[in-house]
Amino acid sequence: MEYNKKYKKGGFREGGFPIVGILKVMGVIILAIGVLLLATYLLMALWNWLMPDIFGLPALGFWQALGIFVMAKMHFGFGGGGKKGGGGQGHKKRFKSSLAQGCSMGNGFDHWKHYDQFWKEEGEAAFRAYVERTQGTGEQRP
Predict the structure, then answer these.
(1) What is the dihedral of CA 41, 45, 51, 57, to 10 degrees?
(2) Mean per-residue pLDDT over the chain, rounded
(3) Secondary structure of the chain in the HEC alphabet?
(4) What integer pLDDT is reported at residue 42 of this predicted model?
(5) Higher pLDDT, residue 137 or 94
(6) Dihedral sign for Cα atoms in the order 91, 96, 97, 98
(7) Is this model's pTM higher than 0.70 or not?
(8) CA distance linking residue 102 with residue 51, whole number of Å
(9) Best CA proximity match to 22, nearest among 34, 7, 11, 33
């Protein structure tokens, strides 16, 4: 069987239309619209349940909730993120590797496991000595 450019995946097959591809795209569009409508309804229901009682705000209708939802998405972003925004898996890998190399955020945290033993042995006596020193010099700390 010869390779035929018309027989590529997602392309035209023997002069016909890619019906399966069109149906998939339509399904994704319908699903996206359904998710948008459901999210709007949930926003409206939560707003009407909480905001009038807590803050004394008026109840919202569906179209008002859709407007707030769209404004929030425009203000806070549409969730793309990725490597351009500094998020994603690459960011986590860089953060972990910087901790492993001993950046300032990672220094000293492993020493806290000795804190309880220190407090039992030296902490209370050191604290009492500190209080006596500060009271003798007249220092007052908030």
Answers:
(1) 70
(2) 77
(3) CCCCHHHCCCCCCCCCCCHHHHHHHHHHHHHHHHHHHHHHHHHHHHHHHHHHHHHCCCCCCHHHHHHHHHHHHHHHCCCCCCCCCCCHHHHHHHHHHHHHHCCCCCCCHHHHHHHHHHHHHHHHHHHHHHHHHHHHHCCCCC
(4) 96
(5) 137
(6) positive
(7) no
(8) 46
(9) 11
